[in-house]
Amino acid sequence: MQFMLLFSRQGKLRLQKWYVPLSDKERKKISRDLVQTILARKPKMCSFLEWRDLKIVYKRYASLYFCCAVEDQDNELITLEIIHRYVELLDKYFGSVCELDIIFNFEKAYFILDEFLLGGEAQETSKKNVLKAIEQADLLQEFNIGTFKEIKIFLLGEI
Amino acid sequence: MSPSVPLQEMIRAIRSARTQCEERGVIQRECAAIRAQFRQSDNGGRSHNLAKLLYVHMLGYPAHFGQMECVRMIASPRYSEKRVGYLGAMMLLDEKQDASLLITNSIKNDLSHSNQYVQSLALCTLACMGSAEMCRDLAPEIDRLLRASNSYIKKKAALCAVHIVRKVHDLGEMFAPAARSLLSEKNHGVLHGAVVLITELCERNLETLEKFRKAVPDLVQIMKGLVISGYSPEHDVAGISDPFLQVRILRLLRILGHNNEAASDAMNDLLAQVATNTDSTKTVGNAVLYETVLTVLDIKSESGLRVLAVNILGRFLLNNDRNIRYIAMISLQKIVGTDHNAVQRHRGTIVDCLKDQDASVKRRALDLSLALVSASNIRSMMKELLIFLSSCPLELRSQAASGIFIAAERYAPSQRWHIDTILHVLTTAGGDVRDETVPNLIQLITNASELHCYTVHKLYRALLTDISQQSLVQVACWCIGEYGDLLLRGECQETEPVQVSEDDVLDALETVLQSHMSSPATRGFALTATMKLSTRITDNVDRIRSIVSIYGSCIDVELQQRAVEYNALFKKYDHMRAAVLERMPVIEKTAPGQTNGESTGEPIKDIQSVKVKQGELLLPQPPANQVCDLLDLLGGSEETLQPSPAAGGTAPGLPANTASTAGGDLLDLLGGLEPAPLTPAPTVQVYEKDGVTLTMSCEKQSATGLTVTLTASNSTESDISSLTLQAAVPKSVQLHMKAPSGDSLPARGAAKVTQMVVLNNPNKVNLKMRVRISYSSQGSAFQDTIQIDAFPGLSAAGH
């Protein structure tokens, strides 16, 4: 995957993850153009399009568009599944996720994405494992005591 | 996990701003506060501040002053700060920034941290934005992690290695052994990472690919386990066990089995099993089937399996889900060249997809339909294509029109059908056809001599209905001018004759002349046609004379010039008028397969817009037939030529300042050159006439560059001199002609002349080239045009 964008129906970016090295200016331009192209499409249209020289796969979930740019050899249908899996992860984590959750907790949306995809490829195919890892990392962050040794004792003490 | 309150407050404040200006104000205040905080020493809120900054950055505001803070936070011992610091690094830094190098050390340390979540942060960041230098530095670390760590880290290290290999290709060999051993792990995440890594290694290095072929049985085993095994809740998606892993394994198998009998055999059974057993009611099942089909079609599979694969695609075509139909058509397009008959079976469905609502689906259907046209189905296909043309979206029109023309030319069952089809296209989509359709159609008409009457009647009727489609009007004017007498005679076998009087015809032409919809070229056609009628009608010659003299003071210089010359024909050269304006001879074809002025263009998206240049000049005593040429053939468009550098001027025998396209030759290059590797450059003969032969050989220089070498030889008894070659290509293709080796060909093939043409096709359009050869032999000048459609060694599939 080259990049993933989440944007609202008004074209506001809610999340952007870039796996290719591009300057800020280039990223802005690509986002702007692509968002406009996708927003112009009608609801029943195909989820795949060829844009510039990229393959774009996108899907709309409620008020958010999830859009990925994949390479030529990538399977578009499985990319749709990847998008769906990410939505499921967000849903499980936030409990019935909505756009506001992603706006106010954008850094967590990123953390979840980073536990699911790495370098543009899926790293963990089990939903359970991804969520477990996030939970553990969150605990670690929560008990932001100082050294990790203390956290271990603290947690063990709890149990 | 408790949310960051300061962050949420800021977000709320920004969102409540009612105008853009207000929002900017809020953000400026916040950024100032953040900057102040950054300058202070360590306080508890550092991660909140950076998070705020990242939010601001996502809204599109500048945030570069946060880069150093990211670097500092990454080095912090606190996990919360590291987490946000790494996130900031991935968002604000990219490998082109200098600050990114500063985090290399932190990453290195964190890769060997005792806590796996810290290691994970480092791996994630490296895989996301690691530059080549960072990758080189840290590759040994990654290799170590690949071998000795828990599965949580191993799976991340594998994908990190993928990124490293993409950045620094040579490091691939380092990871190959570790990757191999990872295949025996049980953890799906690790397996997935290993398969991705192996895929990447095999794609880059042939030797590695050879080595990994031995892993095919293992992969087949893993895959079987996934397909046959019982329900595994952890990895199940709608009844398919770990589809992500299945798809990746299938892709790797495709690469390993490509062009290799043994490997392909080993996976045959498995592929058959997956193809038949996978449930295709949901997208996820179709995703696996799709990958399976791609694999089957790309390896050396047995024919039964291939048929199965094509049938799956056929089923996809009937699927309600538009995405699946689109996917099916893409795949069918890939194999339409090789498995043509199999795809033909699904022609009906594909043609139905032309009527789909979605533009992408329509485009695919159009491409496929054009590829499936053959001699046996031409009539029915053309009917469908013409229906499509009348309702298709604008961006597809010119492609559809060109495709129709090519198909019509290749498989036209009769000339009348051909002319009818072209006329139909001109009436429906006349504005989107290429400009050289006009001369092509004209040539076609002159060749179909028995249909002149029919054609002129049809065109006259079309002209009466609508004069806005320029191409149609131009052809109509030309025909009326040429065959006006047939029109006036009022009898026609093929179609209902119209009772037309001379006044009617002249009215029609005058309407075209005066209409503001007519382009200058069209008016030129109309004026010439009017002039030609002066010899074909009897009563209204005076009317023609007056029309012509009116235009003698027209503002348009071209029209004025023509009118003045025609006036001269009436007055001073009246005795020559009949001879000058007599019927055009049939335009000859130069050689079988290469037609003069005919455009068998592949979809021409980038063709230069043809500038219409009027008949150059009428020197006081030009030879009669040259005047005819200039008057009639040149009404069409001409492309600009690229003359060869050593050539003195245009071909001898023509008036010196005639544009090189006198004679109506359109040296426009269509044609796509499919870049194909040619090791020994094969030579093909492209032209042979009167003892002069021209051969061509091509050599591919790069992905878009091609060198064509033209060699001319002379087998006649007399010497040939002043040999020049000129060439033209489509607009987006760059052409550079090197100097020829000489310009004379001694008799009896004693020596040859070669000339190199360097082409660069950056947009990868279909390449064609038109070459004009001109020379003088025994005191007279010869000239000819060659159309080159196919370049040796390249297959022209489907078009």
Write structural notes for this entry:
The complex is a heterodimer of chains A (159) and B (799). Helices cover 50% and strands 22% of the residues of chain A. Chain A is of the alpha+beta class. Chain A has a single domain (3-156), classed as 2-Layer Sandwich (Beta-Lactamase). In chain A, a hairpin with a 2-residue loop joins strand 3 and strand 4. In chain A, helix 4 packs across helix 5. The model of chain A has no long low-confidence stretch (mean pLDDT 89). Chain B is of the alpha+beta class. Chain B contains 34 helices and 11 strands. In chain B, helix 1 packs antiparallel against helix 2. In chain B, 49% of the residues are buried. Residues 590-679 and 795-799 of chain B have low confidence and may be disordered. The interface between A and B is large, with 62 and 74 residues. Chain A: Pfam families: Clat_adaptor_s (PF01217). Chain A: It is found in: Cytoplasmic vesicle membrane; Golgi apparatus; Membrane, Clathrin-coated pit. Chain A: Belongs to the adaptor complexes small subunit family.
Number of strands of chain B: 11
Order of helices and strands of chain A: EEHEEEHHHEEHH
Q: What is the spatial order of strands in the main beta sheet of chain B?
A: 4-5-6-9-8
What is the 3D form of chain A? globular
Describe the biggest sheet of chain B?
A: 5 strands, antiparallel
- What distance separates the N and C termini of chain B? 61 Å
| Shape by Cα distribution of chain B | elongated
